[in-house]
Amino acid sequence: MSLSNLIRRKSEPVGFATATPATFATLEGGKGGTVASVATVAVAKSPQGQTAPPAKVSPGDTATASRWWLIHYPDRDPVEVACCPEATHADILERHPDAVAAEPFTPTIRQPSAPLTASEETAIRAWLALIEETDPATIAEVIGQCQRDAEAREYFAGRAADELPKPDPFPDDRRRCSQCLNLRGRVCTVAKPGGLVSANVGYWPTAHTLQRCAGYLPNATDTNQQRGRERWPGLIQKGGE
């Protein structure tokens, strides 16, 4: 899945909805490869709530390309669709077979009150990666929209905040002996009385119990390569090794 066509119903003052599948289908008839994902979204109403006047396109005009289209349906309110790259009248009607008409228009954009922050951009890029959007032009278009369009920024930042995995507020830093390189077979090789693992030589620990151990030596699968004495310094008793 990559970016869907992003639309807003004309009857709604704020808010976006996902309308169509993720990408345009491959165009047939010798037109070349797959058309890139629909990427942009912008404010199609001015602060006074008025859309920019549409430019009329006759049903026979299939060559006119536009980034923004107002699509009319026989049984519901029109919707505004942003396209990246620009789509022709024929493309739009092919993607929306239940539409009765479509016309391009130029939206009025509300400028952001502050620049896009590094953390906002990072989150938006992470969300694009999450939905498997890899096209550089599409990604650049989304970031550009977020830099110059307040409502686009609110939309994409909101999607990122809602859908990106949340870090565990209380992460469990304990490890199992089975993750420790000091476990050979069933024997803890650093165990000795008064040592990092104060136990009898030849000690058999419970290999799959989560715990904190000063003698822990992480294997290659542990993303934290600190040894136990560094990771949990409070476990080392004064006078111990």
Labels describing this entry:
single chain; 241 residues; alpha+beta; two-stranded antiparallel sheet; 13% strand
Q: Based on helices, strands and strand pairing, what is the structural class? A: alpha+beta
Number of helices: 5
Major beta sheet, specifics?
Answer: 5 strands, antiparallel
Using the CA coordinates, give the radius of gyration.
29 Å
Distance from first to last alpha carbon: 54 Å
Quote the average pLDDT: 75
Percent helix: 10-25%
> What characteristic shape results from the CA principal axes?
elongated
State the strand order across the main sheet: 2-1-4-3-5
- Write the H/E string, N to C: EEEEHEHHHEEH
Oligomer: single chain
Tell me the fraction of residues in β-strands, as a range: 5-15%
Q: Total number of β-strand segments?
A: 7
Q: Which spans have pLDDT < 50 for at least 5 consecutive residues?
A: 4-57
Q: How many domains, as an integer?
A: 2
Question: Can you walk me through this structure?
Answer:
- The chain is of the alpha+beta class and 241 residues long.
- It folds into two domains: 1-166, no CATH class; 174-241, no CATH class.
- 21% of the residues lie in helices and 13% in strands.
- A hairpin with a 7-residue loop joins strand 1 (6-9) and strand 2.
- Helix 2 crosses helix 4 (150-163) and helix 3 (136-148) crosses helix 4 (150-163).
- The longest helix has 14 residues, at 150-163.
- Mean pLDDT is 75; it is low at 4-57.
